[in-house]
């Protein structure tokens, strides 16, 4: 035989009750079943609220009562619409009405007295299960003999109203006595027991604590020695973490009693914490099932796990919020050594549960965590108990509210090194500090106290660290121009394919210089650029707010992708790093900061253990910097780097053959969109100089921009002022000089190229005559060519050539940096 318990979520309406009836009747085909029900969803809370309002003299308790009464009467009406004329119905209706009238009278009594004693509260709260039990037994009777069993008189407790302790031996005796009568007289019927409610030996109504129907089911199941207890609820089983907080939580197929106990004790609401003990003691397995998805396997809780669930040594993660951490700081070892015992005695005498204890090995300090609502009482009893010590300042008491406990549970953790370290690392990495730590002696549980505001982040982080086989990365994109816009298209095209490979990219935020858009659930990259053009659905661009949102996000890790050319933004990189973000950027400004600022930025990345990827700084999508890195890592020594490093200058000299003036070629190139808006920036050679500095720093030279000898192709006189087309006319006057250089080249069988060279610790950028046979001579269109001469590549240099500019290749390079970052990140 088996016992099936249905929670409030399964008893929320006539429709769900009908579902439950179908499940019970189907099970009855195979074996005898016993049923335990909770009150209909929300009813217990409504009853307690109504009582408390009545006690305060608030008349609205009547409206609360009325709504609740109507809910039951509606249910009755709907479920038995065909049976209205039967004797059975009139009896059921009478029972329900009697209960409702009794309840109403009780509430009116509370209102008159302006007082709701705990015993009255229990009496009132118990009506929820009595009503649902009557209704459900009635419903079953439509199809199969069934009857209602009020558990008051069967489950016996002390008089600790609202959270009464069950007197086990007596309860078992009474339940077994009931059972033998049942077996003799009504064996084929289905009994429907009320959960949650019990009574004292002298018959006063009690309840066994909120959410207690699970516990009622376990007690009844254990006493009647059923084969299995099933807890039917609204989720597919016990999840690896609260599914309301952790999206990636999954159903754990099997748990041991101890694991399930720890999980429920530390906040997994799906089971009342006391449920497991009676079942474990009587070797009865428990299965958690979903009323709304009965075919799902559920979670089996038993003594031995039969299958190896090996994804992680942990089984689940839970949390309890609204905790206060109380700490004793003792002046002398002797005072604190007996403190632990006294603290426990004092608090337990005051019915205050201690969830966590951590004692420093020096024994000079002790921390415990209690529910914050117990704090005033705890303070009072502890101050009394430690009056003497406090008076003499032998100990100091500190309180820290607004805390929570995160606990990780799993038998597989026993003896496995590094579990706590992994937990600390996952939190520490994202700047969540840990106030206290405790590990159960069984090693089945490690719990930490942290700031309660971090609950969602912390649970997601720890869950990820222990259960995720996938890698995740959230993107904060700043700059949605050519490169940023193309990157969005790439994201749009590739995100789902990457997800199938276990790489989860999510666009967390995007911004242009005016507006921004933040959505931790993920922004659609396809519509992002258009959305940013509107005020609706976006907010004004504010980097501080963007950084704060990233800092507080649950979706981690995050990468800040700077697709601007802004120096200002680079000055904010330290804040970006401190908020926990990695940085990927084509923006060269950071890597050419003056050495002291550059060094401190790099130190910042190291200190916060963040990655900085800027592959596109040289050669756009070409693997220039990564090749340099690889050569150095392989122990090679770089002798010389020379290259056509500017796509624009490459293009200009590929097309300048003397038939048209250089100024004309330049103007055409500008019109084709291949130069900066002010082409003097390309001609200045600054961009080439920056790339030289970046490569120099990559090979360890502390080079500054001012160290590079730069040939500026714009004559002094034309450098100032705003750029306009008249520049070309004035520039044409210098054609002679350029033409002479070209002619000289042609005479010597050379080509003219603007080349950057890094050699013997020095860098220069300028026009050079390159022999036809030299690798730098073979450029087409806006190709970059970089020739690297090293110890190993001495005779023929290593050459990297290809399209070195443009939003497509740059965005592709940025995207590949993002993917590289994913590979660097731990699982
Ligand atoms: P019932 O009314 O059936 O007793 P409860 O609301 O008491 O249901 O418990 C089920 C709920 O517990 C789920 O809907 C879920 O939101 C919550 N919950 C919290 N932590 C967990 C967990 N680790 N696994 C499953 N459910 C959990
Ligand atoms: N009805 C009770 C409550 O809401 C008991 C339960 O649902 O388990 O707390
Ligand atoms: Mg419950």
Structure commentary:
Strands 3-5-2-1-8-10-11-9 form an 8-stranded mixed β-sheet, with helices on both faces. The chain is elongated. The chain has 827 residues and is of the alpha/beta class. The protein is built from 30 helices and 30 strands. The model has no long low-confidence stretch (mean pLDDT 93). Bound molecules: adenosine-5'-diphosphate, aspartic acid and magnesium ion. Adenosine-5'-diphosphate binds at residues 7-10, 38, 211, 233-235, 238-239, 241-244, 268-270, 316. Aspartic acid binds next to loops.
Count of strand segments: 30
Q: If you average the pLDDT, what whole number results?
A: 93
Q: Which molecules are bound in this entry?
A: adenosine-5'-diphosphate, aspartic acid, magnesium ion
Proportion of β residues?
15-25%
CA radius of gyration: 37 Å
Q: How would you sum up the global shape?
A: elongated
Q: For the report, how would you describe the main beta sheet?
A: 8 strands, mixed
Count of DSSP H/I helices: 30
* Helical content class: 40-55%
Strand order of the largest sheet: 3-5-2-1-8-10-11-9
> Residue ranges: pLDDT <50 for 5 or more in a row?
none
Based on secondary structure, the structural category is alpha/beta
What is the CA-CA span between the terminal residues? 45 Å
């Amino acid at each position: 035989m088996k016992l099936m318990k249905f929670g409030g979520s399964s008893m929320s309406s006539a429709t769900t009750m009908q579902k439950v009836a179908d499940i019970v009747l189907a099970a009855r085909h195979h074996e005898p079943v016993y049923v335990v029900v909770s009150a209909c969803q929300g009813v217990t809370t409504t009853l307690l609220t109504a009582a408390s309002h009545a006690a305060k003299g608030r008349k609205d308790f009547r409206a609360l009562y009325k709504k609740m009464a109507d809910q039951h009467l509606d249910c009755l009406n709907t479920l038995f619409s065909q049976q209205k004329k039967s004797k059975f119905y009139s009896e059921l209706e009478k029972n329900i009405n009697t209960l409702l009238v009794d309840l109403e009278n009780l509430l009116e009594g509370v209102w008159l007295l302006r007082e709701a004693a705990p015993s009255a509260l229990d009496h009132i709260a118990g009506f929820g299960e009595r009503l649902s039990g009557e209704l459900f037994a009635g419903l079953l009777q439509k199809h199969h003999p069934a009857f209602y069993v009020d558990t008051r008189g069967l489950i016996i407790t002390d008089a600790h109203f609202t959270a009464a302790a069950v007197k086990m031996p007596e309860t078992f005796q009474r339940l077994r006595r009931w059972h033998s009568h049942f077996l003799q007289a009504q064996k084929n019927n289905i009994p429907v027991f009320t959960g949650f409610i019990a009574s004292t030996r002298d018959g006063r109504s009690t309840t066994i604590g909120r959410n207690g129907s699970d516990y009622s089911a376990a007690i009844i199941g254990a006493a009647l020695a059923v084969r299995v207890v099933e807890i039917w609820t609204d989720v597919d089983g016990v999840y690896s973490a609260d599914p309301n907080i952790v999206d990636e939580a999954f159903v754990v197929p099997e748990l041991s009693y101890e694991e399930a106990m720890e999980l429920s004790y530390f906040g997994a609401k799906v089971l009342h914490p006391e449920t497991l003990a009676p079942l474990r003691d009587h070797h009865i397995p428990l299965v958690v099932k979903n009323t709304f998805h009965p075919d799902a396997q559920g979670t089996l809780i038993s003594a031995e796990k039969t299958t190896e669930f090996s994804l992680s040594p942990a089984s689940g993660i839970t949390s309890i919020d609204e905790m206060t951490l109380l700490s004793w700081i003792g002046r002398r070892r002797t005072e604190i050594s007996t403190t632990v015992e006294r603290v426990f005695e004092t608090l337990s005498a005051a019915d205050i549960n201690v969830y966590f204890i951590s004692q420093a090995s020096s024994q000079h300090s002790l921390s415990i965590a209690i529910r914050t609502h117990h704090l005033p009482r705890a303070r009072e009893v502890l101050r009394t108990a430690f009056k003497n010590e406090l008076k003499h300042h032998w100990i100091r008491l500190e309180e820290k509210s607004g805390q929570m406990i995160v606990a990780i549970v799993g038998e597989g953790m026993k003896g496995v090194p590094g579990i706590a370290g992994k937990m600390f690392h996952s939190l520490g990495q994202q700047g969540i500090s840990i106030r206290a730590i405790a590990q159960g002696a069984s090693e089945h549980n490690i719990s930490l106290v942290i700031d309660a505001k971090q609950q969602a982040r912390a649970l997601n982080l720890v869950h990820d660290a222990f259960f995720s086989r996938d890698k995740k990365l959230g993107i904060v994109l700043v700059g949605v121009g050519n490169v940023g816009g193309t990157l969005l298209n790439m994201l749009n095209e590739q995100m789902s394919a990457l997800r199938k490979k276990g790489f989860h990219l999510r666009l967390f935020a995007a911004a242009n210089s005016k507006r921004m858009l933040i959505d931790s659930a993920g922004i659609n990259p396809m519509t992002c650029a258009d959305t940013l053009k509107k005020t609706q659905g976006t907010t004004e661009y504010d980097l501080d707010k963007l950084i704060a949102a990233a800092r507080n996000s649950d979706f981690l890790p995050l990468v800040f992708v700077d697709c601007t050319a802004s120096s200002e933004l680079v000055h904010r990189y330290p804040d970006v790093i401190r908020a926990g973000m990695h940085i990927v950027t084509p923006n060269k400004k950071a890597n050419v900061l003056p050495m002291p600022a550059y060094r401190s930025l790099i130190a910042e990345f190291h200190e916060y253990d963040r990655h900085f990827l800027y592959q596109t700084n040289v050669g756009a999508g070409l693997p220039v910097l990564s090749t340099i890195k690889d050569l150095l890592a392989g122990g090679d020594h770089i002798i010389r780097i020379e290259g056509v490093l500017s796509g624009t200058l490459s293009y200009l000299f590929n097309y300048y053959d003397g038939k048209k003036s250089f100024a004309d070629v330049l103007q055409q190139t500008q019109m084709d969109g291949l130069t900066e808006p002010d082409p003097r920036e390309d001609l200045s050679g600054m961009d080439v100089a920056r790339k030289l500095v970046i490569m120099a720093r990559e090979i360890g030279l502390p080079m500054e921009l001012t160290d590079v000898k730069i040939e500026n192709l714009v004559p002094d006189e034309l450098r100032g002022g705003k750029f306009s087309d008249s520049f070309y006319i004035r520039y044409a006057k210098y054609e002679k000089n350029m033409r002479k250089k070209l002619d000289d080249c042609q005479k010597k069988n050379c080509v003219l190229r603007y080349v950057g060279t890094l050699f013997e610790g020095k860098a220069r950028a300028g026009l050079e005559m390159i022999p036809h046979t030299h690798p730098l001579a073979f450029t087409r269109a806006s190709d970059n060519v970089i020739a690297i001469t090293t110890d190993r590549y001495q005779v023929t240099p290593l050459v990297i050539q290809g399209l070195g500019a443009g939003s497509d290749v740059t965005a592709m390079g940025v995207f590949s940096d993002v993917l590289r970052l994913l590979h660097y990140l731990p699982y």
